[in-house]
Design brief:
By secondary structure, this protein is of the alpha/beta class. Helix content is 38%, strand content 18%. It binds ligand 9D3. Ligand 9D3 binds next to strand 5.
């Protein structure tokens, strides 16, 4: 999959692209990431990419010509790409959107800065995405987040035994609790079940752990979800455990 990122700060991506799974995905030709400097498409001695808003007011607006030039270049390099404006007004980014994007040939991200982009570039935009209801200084972190979430869904990106299949959020449940060595840390032991070697009861324990965690940390996720009969049964067993704990 090909990613192009139109930004006035292409260097922001250097570290992101040289570490971990993203780096390996680039080395393994699973993805390409091509940051393009919008300033390279700006005219004049100062190659200005922003200007004052018509009608007055605070802040600056990104000029349309450099953006249009950068989009044209990105599309030339990547004819099958979807052009996505990153902005607070976009549709919310979710795991389901990451899954949708992972099926595409390429994505072209436009990272806004300042107050926003000139309205007339919308004719070049296929989609507009926000990563959440908080205010950033620009779209660059959003581009990294989306590239990260999409890349790990691509076949071969995670490698080895790790797989995106049983991720939390794909089934609207949080991950179960995890333990590794040592068996005792600061007086706290690893639950006996996990040392039992009984895969059936370990799977039930993990499902229970997922359900209880989701119930406590993200009840909104459980409310929009129907529990299966196995899930109800496992959750009841945890309730009985909690009741026994309370009565001492
Ligand atoms: C003063 C009005 N602001 C709207 C809340 C203007 C404004 C703030 C921040 C315009 C652009 C930005 C920069 N943000 C992004 O480019 C951005 C963003 C975000 O701020 N939140 C969540 N997702 C995204 S994606 C791009």
């Amino acid at each position: 999959m090909q990613f192009s990122v139109l930004t006035i700060f292409p260097e922001i991506f250097d570290s992101f692209l040289s570490h971990g799974i993203i780096r390996r995905a680039i080395e393994g030709n699973i993805i390409t990431v091509n940051p393009l400097d919008i300033r390279d498409f700006a005219e004049g001695k100062h190659r200005i990419t922003d200007d004052r808003p018509y009608g007055g007011g605070a802040g600056m607006v990104m000029k349309p010509e450099p953006l249009a030039g950068a989009i044209a270049e990105a599309r030339k390099l990547m004819p099958g790409g979807r052009t996505i404006l990153l902005s607070p007004q976009g549709r919310p980014f979710k795991q389901s959107v990451a899954a949708e994007f992972s099926l595409l040939e390429g994505l072209i991200f436009i990272c806004g800065r300042y107050e926003g982009v000139d309205e007339r570039i919308y004719k070049y935009i296929d989609d507009e995405i926000s990563i959440g209801d908080y205010v950033l200084t620009g779209g660059e972190p959003a581009a990294m987040i989306i590239i990260d979430a999409v890349t790990r869904l691509l076949p071969g990106a995670l490698g080895g035994e790790a797989s995106a299949e049983k991720d939390s959020f794909t089934d609207d449940l949080l991950e179960h609790a995890h333990y590794t060595r040592p068996p005792e840390f600061e007086g706290e032991s690893v639950p006996d079940v996990l040392l039992s070697g009984n895969h059936g009861i370990i799977e039930d324990w993990r499902l229970g752990s997922s359900l209880v965690r989701t119930l406590i940390k993200r009840p909104d996720l459980l409310e929009k979800r129907i529990l299966s009969s196995r899930e109800k049964q496992v959750l009841k067993q945890w309730c009985e455990y909690i009741e026994r704990f309370i009565s001492g």
